[in-house]
Design brief:
- 2 copies of one chain form a homodimer.
- Chain A is α+β, with helices and mostly antiparallel strands and 286 residues long.
- In chain A, 21% of the residues lie in helices and 25% in strands.
- Chain A is built from 6 helices and 10 strands; from the N terminus they run βαββαβββαβββααβα.
- In chain A, strands 1, 2, 3, 4, 5, 6, 7, 8, 9 and 10 form a 10-stranded mixed beta sheet that branches.
- In chain A, helix 1 (45-56) packs across helix 2 (95-102) and helix 3 (156-164) packs across helix 4 (214-226).
- Chain A is globular and about 60 Å long.
- Chain A binds chain B through residues 27-29, 76, 78, 96, 100, 105-111, 137-142, 144-146, 257, and chain B through 27-29, 76, 78, 96, 100, 105-111, 137-142, 144-146, 257.
């Protein structure tokens, strides 16, 4: 469906075939986008950005973009990373300003750099960090786009305790939409839930990668604990049961923001990409 | 023009004349409002809120509201305070939820309480705190509504140093639109400028009260220092010159948020209101 699904195709090496691979560091307000991935007739971040890149670089065709985290409709990003292979670029340092003039106010390209050899925005990534914001207090209208209002009181310490039961390397099939031939084993490095000084409950979660809807499904389970509908051990029990549980509802998208993508040092980029491809036989949509 | 101008009229005491004075703690995203104060044919916070109160309490007429800080078009609030005098209210604790059902997503009433005797949202206030957000980096699209993008690099420590020259009790005529009979003397308790970890430059300013446009005019002077167009002592020199300086441009409204209003303890409310009325002969629009 999207370029990122074609993980059997070898990535064009930076500078190979007369092409330069550019790394784009970007952010967006997902409210008015139908997610990252191109869909005919819909406004998507991928299409919006790819068209701006084509115009800025006077490319004959709209280029393919590869992204670290293919966010769903309504999900935001502050630390998204993408790459694009383009013919030799003159005046790279002027590109962010050119793009700023072409892009709408809800997408920003923070930085454009020539990617290190072996870099692949998706497969070289060694970690992704997401944030989820939810409030059981009257919400701040200025943050209503990235904060979910919750109609019942939330017990943040109980959510944090429940979250600990999900951390580690596990088969997250219970929190993933199954895809044939794709592993649902992931390493959840951390998942913390805290109430911030302004009262907003913020979950921060980090893993090597996430499968589709995984963060929002885990948040759904933690919110059930937070409002006292389920006991604290329940999210961990669902995990160990190993299959999708209809009692877990997927939390709303607009509380979710991709805040950071980790890459290994330059000399390990190609090895990381090879390892990722080997582990995930079929395309994991993260 | 607005109710808040009528400061010679005695305030209706809480519970007096069969009326109850309610204190409303509220916030709003000012982006799509033409400011706080009612203006015929325009969408204002005052009108929107007053109509919701009338509907929630089934009042025959839209009530007058009095507010601590009459914000301009595009200015936001997280800690605004207003009062309204209404007939005896049944089930006060259900009122915030009722109002939430009536108000649009860009206004929230966080709390409704019966005001202490002598309370006046405007004249009892002993302090107001505003925040101004500006960034010289590619802006976060999720914060574009309350953060001004600045096209040139800013020296935040220089702005902070310049800010120190404005603190204290002064005649702020240089930073105020003059109004006949109104004093422009204010006590600026603090004004700090810091670059936050995410790179956004945030100014926080606190005073007993501000005159119209004062925060944005002071920010305009500090931004001139920040981008190196003026030396650090310049904002203080403008202050001491004592008259409006055409070289000071008023900074854009959407970086500004009223974050807090201070009131003295309950037993000093009436005394504070009397003092404020005495000091400010003519209506200071703050």
């Amino acid at each position: 469906m999207t370029a990122a699904d074609d993980n059997d195709e070898p990535a064009a090496p930076s500078g190979g075939g007369g092409l330069v691979r550019l790394r784009l560091d970007l952010g967006y307000d997902g409210t008015e986008f139908s997610g990252w991935a191109r869909q005919p007739g819909l406004r998507t971040v991928e299409e919006t950005l790819a068209r701006a890149v084509a115009t800025a670089l006077r490319l004959p065709d709209v280029p393919q973009l590869t992204v670290a985290g293919r966010t769903d409709a309504g999900v935001h990003a502050t630390g998204q990373v993408a790459h694009v292979d383009v013919p030799e670029v003159a005046e790279l340092d002027r590109l962010p300003r050119k793009l700023a003039g072409l892009l709408p106010a809800d997408v920003v390209v923070r930085r454009v750099t020539v990617a290190a050899p072996g870099f692949d925005a998706r497969f070289s990534a060694s970690g992704r960090r997401y944030r989820y914001r939810v409030t059981d207090l009257p919400p701040d209208p200025l943050r209503r786009r990235d904060t979910v209002g919750w109609p019942r009181p939330l017990d943040a310490p109980a959510m944090d305790e429940a979250a600990a039961g999900l951390v580690g390397e596990h088969d997250f099939a219970a929190y993933c939409r199954p895809r044939e031939g794709a592993t649902t084993v992931r390493t959840l490095r951390s998942l913390r839930v805290e109430r911030e000084p302004d009262g907003v409950v913020v979950a921060t979660v980090e893993a090597d990668a996430f499968c589709h809807n995984q963060v929002r499904a885990m948040m759904g389970a933690l919110l059930a604990v937070g409002e006292g509908r389920r006991p604290t051990p329940w999210p961990g029990e669902v995990l160990r049961a190993g299959k999708r549980d209809s009692a877990v509802s997927v939390a709303p998208p607009h509380g979710l923001t991709l805040v950071h993508v980790d890459y290994p040092p330059a000399d390990e980029l190609a090895a990381q990409a090879a390892k990722t491809r080997r582990i995930r036989r079929a395309p994991p949509p993260d």
